[in-house]
Amino acid sequence: MENKENNWYKLVKSLWTDIDGGVRRRMFENFIINENIIGSHRQKQTREKYKCNIPWAILMDPTSACNLHCTGCWAADYGNQLNLSLEELDSIIWQGKVLGTYFYLYSGGEPMMRKQDIIRLCDRHPECMFLAFTNGTLIDEAFADEMLRVKNFVPAISIEGFEEATDSRRGKGTYQKVVEAMKLLKRKKLPFGISLCYTAANAEVIGSDAYIDEMIALGAKFAWLFTYIPIGAGADSGLIASAAQRRLMYKKIRAWRAEKPIFTLDFWNDGEFAGGCIAGGRSYLHINANGDIEPCAFIHYADSNIRTHSILDACRRPLFMAYYHNQPFNENMLRPCPLLDNNGKLAEMVDQTGAASTDLACPEDVHALCGKCKRAADCWEPVANALWKSSQYAKQEQTEGV
């Protein structure tokens, strides 16, 4: 931090030069103090009392509706008939705060289809931090002004490649709409990040320095990366990133952390820092637009629903307790996932607990889903093992050197 040419110095400095002072203060209070000091202590007490996972963050879908129809996205298949009411969303947040959870994320569908309710919830819970995974096309001047007023909402904008790649998956003109939304947020001194799903078709672009440099120039302060999962009966398994592409992203993210003024997270490849799988309430859980309480946004199976069970009830029911007793799913933390990295483990837990598919469009047999991911798991295993061995050796060398 003493080196003004260091990427972390530049990133932290940009939080003062690029972000509104009131927004910055609210983010610090809510995320650092409320979530990670006050909330973490309460979460720990609740875990010890009930001997179950308690979420650090809750991801929820206000609606299944979306204004786009993106290739490879399961949400589009649900249409616009599924919604959590404002009262249900409010209840989830109140329940979470009792458990010590002050960080709430929205996905969908497109959560900005409910942007008035999103602002209402920011007003009702000023001590919480809110983030939405959004395609960005519905962010306008009026909404940006509301973000500036409430000060506790941050968008993570999905943009998965340059113009050609983004428009081919999301529709012609989408890239330019997203860029305009980013420029608007930057002009208003509002923080935002990007959400990147790397696939067999775009991993090399997303993993390029030119791409991340462009996102930094547009004003992104963080990047949250996911790898493609073929969820849904008609999902294309051919879009699963190869082992070589996943290794590329593993290497690039670690390089960016040493070189680029942007905070990066990888939902899969950062298992070594998170202690493996973070789903099933260990760090987060997902509530879909039908109210089903799922272990993960990518695991569409449940044995509880917010309309019949509390969040604490769900954490103590068989499916989430199966996660609790089985985590981590592998000693190699670069193989964290019970679906993509440890083939058959998800099916085993679903069978044992009687959890049901939550896909209302076309319920998917868990064994069929695991079958679609088997080749990817088999190919990733030797690559992940080599990376893990190298990583642990490097840590040992560093420790011995100290």
Please render the helix and strand layout as text.
Blueprint: H1 7-17, H2 21-50, E1 57-60, H3 86-99, E2 103-106, H4 115-124, E3 129-134, H5 141-150, E4 153-158, H6 163-170, H7 174-187, E5 193-198, H8 203-206, H9 209-218, E6 222-227, H10 243-259, E7 263-266, H11 271-274, E8 284-287, E9 293-294, E10 301-302, H12 311-316, H13 318-326, H14 345-353, E11 356-357, H15 366-401
Parallel strand pairs: 1-2, 1-8, 2-3, 3-4, 4-5, 5-6, 6-7
Antiparallel strand pairs: 8-9, 10-11
Helix pairs in contact: 4-5, 10-15, 13-14
Properties at a glance:
402 residues, alpha/beta, TIM Barrel, nine-stranded mixed beta sheet, 11 strands
Short note summarizing the structure:
The protein has helices at 7-17, 21-50, 86-99, 115-124, 141-150, 163-170, 174-187, 203-206, 209-218, 243-259, 271-274, 311-316, 318-326, 345-353, 366-401; strands at 57-60, 103-106, 129-134, 153-158, 193-198, 222-227, 263-266, 284-287, 293-294, 301-302, 356-357. It has 402 residues and is of the alpha/beta class.
Characterise this structure:
This protein has 402 residues and is α/β, with parallel strands linked by helices. It has one domain (1-402): TIM Barrel. The chain is 48% helix and 11% strand. It is built from 15 helices and 11 strands. It has helices spanning 7-17, 21-50, 86-99, 115-124, 141-150, 163-170, 174-187, 203-206, 209-218, 243-259, 271-274, 311-316, 318-326, 345-353, 366-401, and strands spanning 57-60, 103-106, 129-134, 153-158, 193-198, 222-227, 263-266, 284-287, 293-294, 301-302, 356-357. A 9-stranded mixed sheet has the order 7-6-5-4-3-2-1-8-9. Strands 10-11 form a two-stranded antiparallel sheet. It is globular.
